Amino acid sequence: MERNRNNEKLDKTILRTSANYLLPLLILFSIFLLIRGHYLPGGGFIGGLIASIAFVLHSFAYSPMQTLRMFSIKPFFLIPTGLLVSFLSGLLPVVLGRSFMTGVWFAESVVVIGAFGSALLFDLGVYMVVVGVVLTILFTISENT
């Protein structure tokens, strides 16, 4: 019995140590996928899923409430904010006299990102929606258990 408790403590320590190292790496990888998405496979959806996985791993290692404390706003508010960013990225071409959701590329390129356009803004909105939905589901389920 005592041996099982020691093993459980060791397992929890290993999981927490791993989560502490993996959380920033997974967030960085998700941002990489987000940025690369308008040129190659990737984008807001898969980037948002990877970011969500990072926070789910953290909630397994610690607790959902401790993970929730990492956010300055509730993850639910990422959903309408992401929808607004995506909608505005589609509305930007209309302001410039083009059709809705037409890709607009700006003349100046950004050092890390490269060519910057409305596709990246749309992907950013999708990223925010995915992270908001997954974390809202996670925290809602954890509150009810």
From TrEMBL:
Top-level taxon of origin: Bacteria
Domain Na+/H+ antiporter MnhB subunit-related protein: 14-136
Membrane topology: Multi-pass membrane protein
Residue stretches spanning the membrane: 21-39, 45-64, 76-96, 116-141
Cited InterPro entries: CPA3_antiporter_subunitB, MnhB
Subcellular localization: Cell membrane
Keywords of this entry: Cell membrane, Membrane, Transmembrane, Transmembrane helix
Keyword RNA-binding belongs to the record: no
GO cellular component, one term: plasma membrane
A Pfam family annotated for this UniProt entry: MnhB
Main location: membrane
Family assignment from sequence similarity: Belongs to the CPA3 antiporters (TC 2.A.63) subunit B family.
Protein name per its UniProtKB record: Multicomponent Na+:H+ antiporter subunit B
